[in-house]
Specification:
By secondary structure, the protein is α/β, with parallel strands linked by helices. It has 13 helices and 11 strands.
Length: 342
């Protein structure tokens, strides 16, 4: 089993649509980097335009990447990436999904982001994540042309269709595989012939009840905001569990996500967190130093468990190096087999 740590490295508190583009949180990245280095789990920092052009980019991010202890990839926030178009980049009205953008503007923003990151790194970036999970087939085509080899924007079995961007809802990833797959140019939830590898965020049902009953999963997805679903979730954890150290995810719950993914036969688990979560007052839910200390304690317990289980840390680029189609197919069959017999 491999561990891929992905960090959405972006401006402070991007949960607020009118938040400024300050990057104070980057000063707190070295503490996280030191923890990763202690366990030999190299992180992948997926960086937005304002982070790449920050005065502290070299000191906090480029230095560990140059030493081979981290990777730096691209993270597209349309509202902070030139060229700007007032019809699409007015952040005060809502945060635009990249999947909403007209193709010419999308391609221009991706090219701009790739160019500035390549200039700062001295080489072509190869890893990518869409802002707000707003991935689309248009991005598959553009990323392949720009030389990217791996994306990590897909969140199975989660749909963002009910979460508005600037004008529309986000993508629906409920049909996407749990294991890595070569992306189709026509449907980001299906494998295909593109040269872009998809490494989905690890999100699984740790409840055997939910893994066993497809109808129950469908019912919960459609009624998750109703009180019976919310009550059932509190009692039995009906919701899919993210491999993300958010405040409600104890170390034990994070470990349960890993153990479930391991039992499913997934070749890699992918954790996601945000750089602003490493700073007190960064996100709306970690307002104190004590909350950040708790985050680091949960990460340390989780990393210790993974290390004891023999898990190997890899960056996205390392994982995306040529792998056999036979191995990927075997992983998918293992998942299908496990769900069938659960």
């Amino acid at each position: 089993m491999k561990l891929i740590l992905t960090v959405d490295t972006e401006a402070d508190d991007q949960w607020e649509t009118d938040a400024s583009l300050t990057t104070t949180n980057l000063e707190h990245v070295p503490r996280f980097q030191a923890l990763c280095e202690r366990f030999e789990f190299p992180p992948t920092y997926l960086c937005t335009h304002e982070v790449i052009t920050s005065a502290v980019f070299n000191k906090t991010l480029r230095r560990p990447a140059r030493a081979g202890r981290a990777e730096i990839g691209a993270h597209l926030h349309p509202w902070s990436t030139p060229p700007f178009d007032a019809a699409w980049d007015d952040g005060g009205r809502g945060r635009t999904y990249p999947s909403e953008l007209p193709e010419d503007l999308l391609h221009a923003k991706l090219a701009s982001l790739t160019e500035v990151l390549g200039d700062r790194l001295g080489h072509q970036p190869t890893s990518y994540r869409a802002g707000r999970w707003g991935f689309s087939t248009a991005q598959v085509t553009a990323l392949c042309k720009l030389g990217y080899t791996v994306d990590c924007s897909v969140t199975p079995p989660v749909s963002w269709a009910g979460d508005l961007g600037l004008r529309n809802g986000g993508p629906d990833f409920t049909r996407a595989p749990l294991a890595p797959y070569s992306l189709s140019r026509h449907d980001v939830c299906r494998s295909g012939s593109s040269k872009l590898l998809e490494v989905p965020v690890t999100i699984v049902h740790t409840s055997s009840l939910m893994r066993r009953w497809r109808r129950l999963r469908r019912w919960f997805r459609h009624h998750r905001r109703a009180w019976p679903a919310r009550a059932g979730d509190r009692l039995f954890r009906l919701a899919p569990q993210w491999f993300r150290p958010s405040p409600q995810m104890s170390a034990q719950r994070l470990i349960a996500v890993y153990e479930t993914a391991n039992a499913l036969g997934v070749p890699a688990v992918e954790m996601i967190l945000h750089s602003s979560e490493l700073m007190p007052g960064g996100p709306p839910y970690d307002r104190t130093s004590a909350a950040v200390d708790d985050l680091f304690q949960r990460l340390e317990i989780t990393f210790s468990h993974l290390s004891a289980r023999g898990v190997e840390g890899m960056t996205l680029a390392e994982f995306a190096r040529p792998r056999s189609a036979t191995g990927r197919a075997k992983s998918l069959r293992a998942i299908e087999s496990y769900i069938a017999r659960s």
